[in-house]
Amino acid sequence: MNDDARWLAAAASLAARARPLSRPNPAVGAIVVRDGKVVARGWTRPGGRPHAEAVALAAAGEAARGATLYVTLEPCAHRSERGPACADLVAASGLARVVVGCGDPDPRTAGSGIARIRAAGIALDLLASPQAEASLSGYLTQKRLGRPEVTLKLAMSLDGCIALANGESQWITGEAARAHVHAMRARADAILVGGATLRGDAPRLDVRLPGLQARAPERWVLTRGEAPTGWRALPSPEAIAGMAGVQYLFVEGGADAAAAFLRAGLVDRLLLYRAPILIGGGRPALADFGLAALARAHGQWRRDAQHPLGSDTLEVYTRIPCSPE
User: Locate the CMP/dCMP-type deaminase domain: which residues (predicted)?
Assistant: First the structure.
């Protein structure tokens, strides 16, 4: 990894601090570097303002002159009542160079931010940074597809069960895996379960990690009826396009809700928590989602990571985009 890629990856790591508090704005990270050393850094603040570049440049002050700014997303070009356009701030900063990890698909910026900075005489490189794009995945999905990024979480036994036949499910996985799930909840804007799960388990779906309790996401239930107090109703998986301000949706089940999202082709990531136990005859993790031929099951998912969590194992899968015909 060269220096530019390394600094962009570091900026992407900073961006994680903004998620999900930056909503409805994207979680962006920025680092000001001079002579191989960090001068200042920033990430999008709660509520979406100030932006990461504004935070980093304000912290750098005069030290920004002649330095390089690494930022995960193209600086915005549109002015707002809530703050100036970051492209204007960058243009007036005295920076020698800017390195951007991902262009902004928002039509209000979409290349205009880059053009404005270059017009100010600042060298700018737009690099394809996998880490920057991954840190912006929910925002990019929202802008490109008009819906949130959907992560489906399943906690199961080795033989694919999420509960005993009588419904007992606490606990399939151990403490380390459950703590990891809570950390993933804290990164989501909204969390969803099916109506049967809500009625049968009465899940809290909160975040029970020290210091992160306030980051519990909005609670949604997949139902055509009314949602109980403290919940919001989603009539169908396709209706996620109307979830205003939601970039990251975390689907926790149960089997029917998971199948509904898979049937609709709306699952972008899978988090599979596997416990080293066998149940046999228990409740399956998934209901039928319409697979008509075994051949169509292949080539749909790419495993990106595998991690031990105590005695359990987490596998992370990303949907493989369909090739154009």
Answer: 2-125
Strands 149-156 and 97-100 turn out to be unpaired
Residue found under tokens 């199961």: 156
User: What is the Cα–Cα distance from 147 to 236, expressed in whole angstroms?
Assistant: 13
Task: Tell me the C-alpha distance between 9 and 129, whole Å.
Answer: 7
In the beta sheet, which residues pair with residue 222? 194, 234
Q: Measured between alpha carbons, how far is residue 301 from residues 86, 187, 248, 296 in Å?
A: 37, 22, 19, 11
User: Is residue 132 a contact partner of residue 154, using CB atoms and an 8 Å limit?
Assistant: no
Amino acid at position 277, single letter: I
CA pair distance 268, 92, nearest whole angstrom: 39
What is the phi/psi pair of residue 232, to 5°? -125, 145
**Residue 1: what pLDDT?**
61
CA distance 299 to 318: 11
Q: Coil, helix or strand for 314?
A: strand
Of 131, 140, 110, 185, which is closest to residue 13 (Cα–Cα)? 131
pLDDT for 325: 46
Cis amide linkage into residue 24, ω under 30° from 0: yes
> What pLDDT does residue 84 have?
83
Whether 169 shows a pLDDT value over 60: the answer reads yes
* Interval 110-145: pLDDT, tens: 989 999 999 999 999 999 999 999 999 999 999 999
Q: Which residues carry out catalysis?
A: 53
